[in-house]
Hints:
Layout: H1 2-34, H2 41-64, H3 69-141, H4 148-179, E1 188-191, H5 192-209, E2 213-219, E3 224-227, H6 229-245, E4 252-260, E5 266-275, H7 282-285, H8 298-301, H9 309-319, E6 323-329, E7 333-343, E8 364-368, H10 372-384, E9 388-392, H11 395-404, E10 412-415, H12 424-432, H13 437-440, E11 444-448, H14 453-462, E12 466-469, H15 474-486
Parallel strand pairs: 2-4, 8-9, 8-10, 10-11, 11-12
Antiparallel strand pairs: 1-3, 4-5, 5-7, 6-7
Helix pairs in contact: 1-2, 1-3, 3-4, 4-9, 5-6, 6-9, 11-12
Amino acid sequence: MKDVFIYLMIYAGSALMAYNIYRYICFSREVRNHGNWDQERGLFNLPIMLLILFFVGYLVVGIFGKPDLVMAGILFGGSVFVFVMLLLIRRTFARIQENEQLEAKLSAAEEASNAKSFFLSNMSHDIRTPLNAIIGYTTLANRDGVTYEEKSGYIGKIEKAGRQLLDIVNDVLDMSRIENGKLSLEPTCVNLEDCVREADDLVRTQLEAKGIELTVSSEVAHKWVLCDKAMLDRALMNLLCNAGKFTEENGSVSLRLTELPGTDETGAYEIRVKDTGIGMSPEFVEHLFTPFERERTSTVSKTQGTGLGLAITKSIIDLMDGSISVQTEKGKGTEFIITVSFPIEEPEEEVRSEEEDFSFDGMRALLVEDNMINTEIAQLLLEQAGFLIETAENGKIALEMTAASEPGYYDVILMDIQMPIMDGYAATQAIRALPDARLAGVPIVAMTANAFQEDVKKAEQAGMNGHIGKPLDIPEMMATLQRVLKKT
């Protein structure tokens, strides 16, 4: 019985040593893959050779020898000792790997924090610049003795500064939506040549005022495609405005749309935006599409912008399953190249009819808004258009006023969304649930700072007939009201 126990210890130790050899081989491979260990190759091979010799020695003793209990205990204990040491070494190596990963994450977090701090510094500057213009020109316009022409000039500059401020806010909000995965496409039938022409119209005056020549060309066989026009316009405008910002007087900017070989159902297109501006360093190109990044140069620091435009543009192109690349040289200019494919779409035939000018004179609107300044601005604009205006401070009051009115008394309700007591969505749903179908069917248009595409959909789902975003774009507001009221 004693001999059986001795040999069990010998063979168990041998099996454990064989397992140790296998685990060490796996471990050594893992270590070698983790870094360059060419100089230590001999050190890694030596333990394997020693372990194999121990293993062979165990087998020789077990097969040919006559071990006693002490020898069997030493051999078995040696196998256990090697197993424990390998386990400790592997645990130590795993901890080292964890620490390296934590250090890498910490380094990445510090880089992101530094980039965001740099972005916040730039954004603070960029926000204060138009704010300074708005406050300064407002002060100048309120001085005694200011002529009508001077005041008109100040107001025009205030409006321009306000739009610059809005662009900055939109960039920040869009970047937030991109990071949260909320940016999505809304494809419609679009004329690509119209997109190029509209981009030309929007930036030509601005570039020519700076002494920059703009060249636009289009060579496409299939101009009607299915794509998100607003997103494509945003990408084009970002690239063109960037080109204008970093191109000096007497420079040039070009936009070229070309159709590449595609299929019968899908068109492939290349968009090139080229400038003769300051160019970029190779080091910065690696971080070109990183959010919050801007190149640290004296020229760039004087140029307004948040550093988000290109990150947003790349996100848009990625959503379209396209690609964007850049060719640039310091001091010689930059060219962005977009390649993207869209389904070819046949446009619907437009039915054109001569219609009389639509008038809002005498129409009654219920303006639901909890902010007094917003109420005053909207009321004045609507009254100038011919509306008769009544106001409500929240959705509950609007519901009560609508329920107490005669059918047809209100031609339209302009409904804010975020309000105390009852918000715009709840108020709209309550109005749609009124027992009198004529009261329940009154046109309701959202007029809100909730201006993203998902907000437009949410307004539709709540039962609203249209959506007007804030800050108010007056022509767009009137066009929306005209479209809604024509249907009633």
